[in-house]
Amino acid sequence: MTSFLMNIYVFILGLVLGSFYNVVGLRSTEGQSIMFPPSRCPSCGQRLPWLDLVPVFSYLMLRGRCRTCRRKISPIYPIVEASTGLLFLLSFQNAASAGEMLAGCLLSSLLMIVLVTDLSKMIIPDRIVLFFLVLFALFRTIFRLDPWWDAALGSAVGFGLPAIMAVLSRGGIGGGDVKLFAAMGLLVGSKLILLGFFFSTLYGALIGMAGLLTGRIKRRQPIPFVPFIAPGMVTAFFFGDALLDAYFRFIT
Ligand SMILES: [Zn+2]
């Protein structure tokens, strides 16, 4: 297969899985089964034909409204679908090995599911994080980090940093965020989880300040953190090494 076709294939796989992650995210916060019932419009309950379930494409064709009741469809759906497609493509383009490509796809998958749960219900479900924690542990016994114990160290750093921050900020960071970082640390190791935490809080602080200044966010108003953790971890995982290189060349 040519690499062009391979790129298209990886992107489409991401789109389709992104669509599945929307379902997993929404149903896991409502205690529903992931496989049944078939997809329905959340406003009018109309069962959706396959033509309305094509990732991104259906949303654009329907101009963001339900075919039956014309009520608005949340833009989270196409955003998660397109983002998963692009992140899978980035994993494929960026990876030095098959293991690192898989790691990129696994990390993107977890981030997209908890993005849906955090944006819709402001929760990060324990069973989702636990599922990925077990998956990451198995993955890192096969595709080991160098040194191998960096996975455990990464998980400890991923737990420790946001836990300290949670105590200091008195509720600015929730327990779900702490567990999420601990799980991701196991996959990416100590250096990248440190960097990922740095970028997540940086993005959060910048947007938070902008929100306070423009009056769109009130002081002490709880805001979901995953919309900052996702781009923060993506920055660290895909561009962290290049950014660190550039930084150290700049200061020396
Ligand atoms: Zn409807």
By DSSP, the count of extended strands is 0
Distance between the termini: 44 Å
Shape: globular
Helix vs. strand class: mainly alpha
Largest sheet: none
Which stretches are poorly predicted, pLDDT < 50 over at least 5 residues?
Answer: none
Q: How helical, in percent, are the residues?
A: over 70%
Helix and strand pattern: HHHHHHHH
- What small molecules accompany the polymer chains? zinc ion
Can you count the helices?
A: 8
Overall number of structural domains: 2
Proportion of beta-strand residues: under 5%
Briefly characterize the structure:
The protein has helices at about 5-30, 55-60, 75-95, 100-120, 125-140, 150-170, 175-215, 225-250.
Keywords:
single chain, 252 residues, mainly alpha, 2 domains, 70% helix
Can you describe this structure?
This protein has 252 residues and is an all-alpha fold. The chain folds into 2 domains: 1-94, no CATH class; 124-252, no CATH class. It contains 8 helices and no strands. The protein has helices at 3-28, 57-61, 76-94, 98-121, 126-142, 150-169, 175-214, 226-251. Helix 3 runs antiparallel to helix 4 (98-121). The protein starts with a helix and ends with a helix. Bound molecules: zinc ion (ZN). The site of zinc ion has 8 residues, from loops. Zinc ion binds at residues 41, 43-44, 46, 66, 68-69, 71.
